[in-house]
Amino acid sequence: MAATGLRFQSAAFFSARQRDAGTKPFHHCSPHRIPIARRIGLLKTKSSNGRPQISASFSNEMLDESLSGERAPEQQGGSTVSITVVGASGDLAKKKIFPALFALFYEGCLPEHFAVFGYARSKMSDEELRTMISRTLTCRIDKRENCGDKMEHFLQRCFYQSGQYNSEEEFAELDRKLKEKEAGRVPNRLFYLSIPPNIFVDVVRSASRTASSSGGWTRFIVEKPFGRDSESSGELTRSLKKHLAEEQIFRIDHYLGKELVENLSVLRFSNLVFEPLWSRNYIRNVQLIFSEDFGTDGRGGYFDNYGIIRDIMQNHLLQILALFAMETPVSLDAEDIRNEKVKVLRSMRQLKLEDVVVGQYKGHVKGGKSYPGYADDPTVPKGSITPTFAAAALFIDNARWDGVPFLMKAGKALHTRRAEIRVQFRSVPGNLYRRNIGSSDLDQATNELVLRVQPDEAIYLKINNKVPGLGMRLDRSNLNLLYSERYPREIPDAYERLLLDAIAGERRLFIRSDELDAAWAIFTPVLRQLEDKRVAPELYPYGSRGPVGAHYLAANYNVRWGDISSDDS
Ligand SMILES: NC(=O)C1=CN([C@@H]2O[C@H](COP(=O)(O)OP(=O)(O)OC[C@H]3O[C@@H](n4cnc5c(N)ncnc54)[C@H](OP(=O)(O)O)[C@@H]3O)[C@@H](O)[C@H]2O)C=CC1
Ligand SMILES: O=C1O[C@H](COP(=O)(O)O)[C@@H](O)[C@H](O)[C@H]1O
């Protein structure tokens, strides 16, 4: 098979970066898994996790076959990818999706033949869409060359179709426009549903009937929330599957696309020093912490129907927990990883009401500035008891994790913006140096591994260390891998990675329906109880550290939150 047709634009850039990097190839935009390419032995480079990756000479036909699993008919001119952002006028589209697509284009990671379409009810011309998008596009901080030209080239490939979300006719109109741009090439189509969940099924029904690709693949990225509980999530899955095969559904959890979350498995499975310690034998507790220093800010209407447990814990934090706690997968293939995640999720105990603390932020005046409470948001119903903060203690009933508390804490309008994983290890039995450790509480002198997902990505390990000098005094110090120092290039946004993977047909970072069922099974009973019993959230001031109840919950399990110590907060 000739390596002609679609080429990743990265060819020139790729080799330039390889030269710049000095030694190893720079694998910034390779999808994770290219089985057919490996089979036919064309690829010479290896990715950082040892897997083969796309080379500059990857042909259309190879791409079609390897990435979609569906053999495309032989056609003149190779293949093309059209990405339709449904809900193009919305917040997420403007803030994340178009900028991520531009970043991929800028880095040479999009296929040669591609088009971006916006679809929404708002009336807009192509030009107006371009103006709207251009306001949020940014250039890589570390690589600004030709950015203006690249923006212009990218915008020329962006088009708009206005339509109702349930209109087969208007999706058929989109289909006609897509065909024009596809110009007889094998058409691959990706729809990104960046819309409120109540219209997911309308869009999937209409688009799958009248705007599916004939000959190439058709995939749908579906944004959260995937239902409100087990029942509604199951209903959504069944409705989607009336129109789509599971392989066409890419349920996105953008935390899985974050650099540090990606690195979690690398840390575990490619460093001998960690995996042997990764169990109840050495780990006392694990903490998954998410905080934002702003409130719901105009998204109160959406948020009030969900609350922080559904918004952050049931998906982002639980996904991280699954990656943290799963057994070693057979391989890095999507199904092997997702199988292990499902197993660990299914080993988890249903969360109990007594293991949950909920809070809601109230207005606060600080430094002469007043910060509104959640209930002051005009889009929030009066008297709402929706939690904007929650802390929870979860347990995995399997041999590896029996009895180890996995503590989660998530909140809006707190004192800082941060997401991190904290692993607190047991104390050293019969510690010879117990008298030399400043604190009398040996639990305070245990090792702690911290993966700071954001901001300022870092991995650090707290160790006990001798303070230099003639005496023998120990203190706690950090072995610190600060990304901005070690890797001084901009870290791609999670949406870039996930879009690239969806185009490549790589499902590893997307949620399978059985994973979703298992995730909802853990949280649904407690969510129901909180609502049925109308549990009142503990109020906390905007910009504070959240309800004190979170500390009592942790104390029940003999745990101290790691983010409150003076050297970390
Ligand atoms: N915004 C964010 O930060 C995040 C969002 N998400 C998820 O992404 C999806 C999109 O979010 P976001 O962009 O904030 O949503 P928006 O509320 O901005 O809605 C997107 C677009 O959908 C259309 N729309 C809005 N409400 C309705 C309605 N009731 N009926 C029909 N169409 C409507 C509007 O387009 P028009 O009127 O032009 O048709 C709007 O521009 C949601 O599922 C959300 O949960 C997930 C993570 C973060
Ligand atoms: O999914 C969501 O995530 C954002 C936080 O994402 P981040 O990447 O900025 O950390 C959160 O604000 C939002 O409420 C939630 O729906």
Summarize the model shown:
The chain has 17 helices and 18 strands. With about 575 residues, it is of the alpha/beta class. It has a nine-stranded mixed sheet with strand order 16-15-14-13-7-12-11-8-18, with helices on both faces.
Task: Show the helix and strand layout.
Blueprint: H1 10-21, H2 35-39, H3 60-68, E1 79-86, H4 91-106, E2 114-120, H5 126-134, H6 147-156, E3 158-162, H7 168-182, E4 186-193, H8 200-210, E5 218-222, H9 230-243, E6 249-252, H10 259-269, E7 283-291, H11 300-304, H12 307-325, H13 334-346, E8 356-362, E9 364-366, E10 369-371, E11 389-394, E12 406-411, E13 418-425, E14 448-454, E15 458-466, E16 474-482, H14 483-486, H15 494-504, E17 510-511, H16 513-532, E18 538-541, H17 549-556
Parallel strand pairs: 1-2, 1-4, 2-3, 4-5, 5-6, 7-12, 8-18
Antiparallel strand pairs: 6-17, 7-13, 8-11, 9-10, 11-12, 13-14, 14-15, 15-16
Helix pairs in contact: 4-15, 7-8, 8-9, 9-16, 12-13, 12-16, 13-16
The structure holds NADPH dihydro-nicotinamide-adenine-dinucleotide phosphate (NDP) and the ligand O=C1O[C@H](COP(=O)(O)O)[C@@H](O)[C@H](O)[C@H]1O.
Name the helicity range: 25-40%
Treating each run of at least 4 consecutive H or I residues as one helix, how many helices? 17
**Major sheet attributes:** 9 strands, mixed
Task: Give the distinct bound molecules.
Answer: NADPH dihydro-nicotinamide-adenine-dinucleotide phosphate, the ligand O=C1O[C@H](COP(=O)(O)O)[C@@H](O)[C@H](O)[C@H]1O
- The percentage of residues in β strands lies in 15-25%
* Number of β-strand runs: 18
Dominant shape: globular
Distance between the termini: 57 Å
What value does the average pLDDT take?
87
Q: What gyration radius follows from the Cα positions, in whole Å? A: 25 Å
Task: Detail the poorly predicted runs.
Answer: 1-27, 33-75
How would you classify the helix and strand content by structural class? alpha/beta
Strand arrangement in the largest pleated sheet? 16-15-14-13-7-12-11-8-18
Domain Glucose-6-phosphate dehydrogenase NAD-binding: 85-263
InterPro entries: G6P_DH, G6P_DH_AS, G6P_DH_C, G6P_DH_NAD-bd, NAD(P)-bd_dom_sf
Pfam families: G6PD_C, G6PD_N
Domain Glucose-6-phosphate dehydrogenase C-terminal: 266-561
